[in-house]
Design goal:
The chain has helices spanning about 30-40, 45-50, 65-80, 90-100, 110-125, 145-155, 160-165, 205-215; strands at about 5, 15, 20-25, 85, 170-175, 180-190, 190-195, 205, 220, 235-245, 250-255, 255-260, 265, 270, 280, 290-305, 310-315, 320-325, 325-330, 340-350. It has a single domain (about 20-350), classed as Cysteine proteinases (Cathepsin B, Chain A, Alpha-Beta Complex), CATH 3.90.70. Strands 7, 11, 15, 16, 17, 18, 19 and 20 form an eight-stranded mixed sheet that branches. Strands 6-5-10-9 form a four-stranded antiparallel sheet, covered by helices on one side. A two-stranded antiparallel sheet has the order 1-2. By secondary structure, the chain is α+β, with helices and mostly antiparallel strands. The radius of gyration is 21 Å and the shape is globular. Strand 18 and strand 19 (about 325-330) form a beta hairpin. The protein is about 25% helix and about 30% strand. It is found in: Cytoplasm; Nucleus. GO terms for molecular function: cysteine-type deubiquitinase activity; metal ion binding. Keywords: Activator, Chromatin regulator, Cytoplasm, Hydrolase, Metal-binding, Nucleus, Protease, Thiol protease, Transcription, Transcription regulation, Ubl conjugation pathway, Zinc.
């Protein structure tokens, strides 16, 4: 017997299978297959699609073509008595119409695809009509109030299941070296792109070290710094990033690819990461306490820049599975950590002081 999904009003029920179904590669589409498997194991999004909740919500005037095609693929993956392999051709076709950049059969970047896919899905199921954006006046507010005002403004324009699950808020703090003035800006994020500290080929780093590097204070010279509000000119300053609001699902991109003037290179450094109880509290507001996350999916990249292949590792009620296009096989926990880990998907496991809405 499969799992039973029930809608919020308990009027509809749906029996689903194990979700351990592969996706056909239709021509260098391993990037799509790996990302879709990770999203398919994002429970809030999976249930929203399988129960077709988007049809009951008020959303933008756009046709939900991509959401329909995406939900159709997820339905195939989770059918109680479905096929062994699902063909994502319709999903890819609709996506390429929406984002022509992904046309053709060349290898694409999985994290870039994920960003475009979530953005287009959000646009189709946005609960808000389009409104002209005006920056709010936050002068005189305390830091937390200023952040809350900016977040409220964001939700007045962008509010969907994608936002509910994936959106957080980053704080960028600038400190002027001349007059010591502090200023803050707040930006919405759907993933964190983390730098990987330099190591020798055999070196190993931790996810904590990547997060530390992401959030460490950075010195900006006059040419690269914004105008100081008090000095009214460009000055040397320091910049620090922190998380102001934590999303339900945090997507962490390990930035393995670096672009120089002449080429793109890939880092194969082994980055170790916790499977449970990743605490992001130290990277948030001072009073937020522990903010814990559990890993549920990994998008891997094997090979080189030009000859690469994407796969996924995803957790379900019965353990972990390895998704390699149409092939699906069980995994042990000890097999999860490799130097191929590229995008990590974590689900919030506790309710901390920083509330989303």
């Amino acid at each position: 017997m499969g799992l039973l999904l029930v809608t919020d009003n308990e009027k509809e029920q749906l029996t689903i299978g194990s979700g351990r179904v592969g996706l056909r590669n239709i021509g260098n589409t391993c990037f799509l297959n790996a990302v879709v498997q990770c999203l398919s194991h994002t429970r809030g999004l999976r249930d929203y699609c399988l129960l077709q909740s988007y049809k009951r919500e008020k959303f933008s005037k756009e046709e939900a073509k991509l959401m329909e095609a995406f939900s159709q693929v997820l339905s195939g993956l989770w059918e109680a008595k479905g096929d062994a392999v699902v063909n994502p051709r319709q999903l890819y076709s609709v996506f390429k119409d929406a984002v022509p950049y992904f046309s053709g059969y060349s290898q694409q970047d999985a994290q870039e695809f994920l960003r475009f896919l979530l953005d287009k899905l959000h646009t189709e199921i946005n609960r808000r009509p389009y409104v002209r954006r005006y920056p709010p006046n936050c002068h005189g507010f305390q830091l937390s109030e200023e952040a809350a005002v900016m977040w409220k403004k964001h939700l007045e324009r962008d509010d969907s299941m994608i936002v509910d699950l994936f959106s957080g808020q980053l704080r960028s703090s600038l400190h002027c070296s001349v007059c010591s003035h502090y200023s803050n800006t707040f930006d919405v994020f759907c993933d964190l792109s983390l730098p990987i500290p330099k190591r020798s080929a055999a070196g190993e780093v931790t996810l904590r070290e990547c997060l530390d590097l992401f959030s460490q204070e950075e010195k900006l010279d006059k040419e690269n710094s914004p105008m100081c509000e008090r000095c009214n000119r460009r000055t040397e300053c320091t910049k620090r990033l922190s998380i102001q609001r934590f999303p339900q699902v945090i997507v962490i991109h390990l930035n393995r690819f670096t672009t120089s003037r002449w080429s793109i290179s890939k880092s194969t450094v082994y980055v170790s990461f916790p499977l449970t109880n990743l605490d992001l509290g130290p990277y948030g507001p001072a009073d937020c306490g522990s903010v814990l996350y559990d890993l549920y999916a990994i998008c891997n990249h094997a090979g080189t820049v030009n000859m690469g292949h994407y796969t996924a590792c995803c957790a379900d009620e019965n353990g972990w599975c390895f998704y390699n296009d149409s092939s699906v096989s069980p995994l042990t926990v000890s097999q999860l950590q490799t130097n191929q880990a590229y995008v990590l998907f974590y689900q919030r496991s506790n309710s901390a002081a920083t509330i989303r809405k």
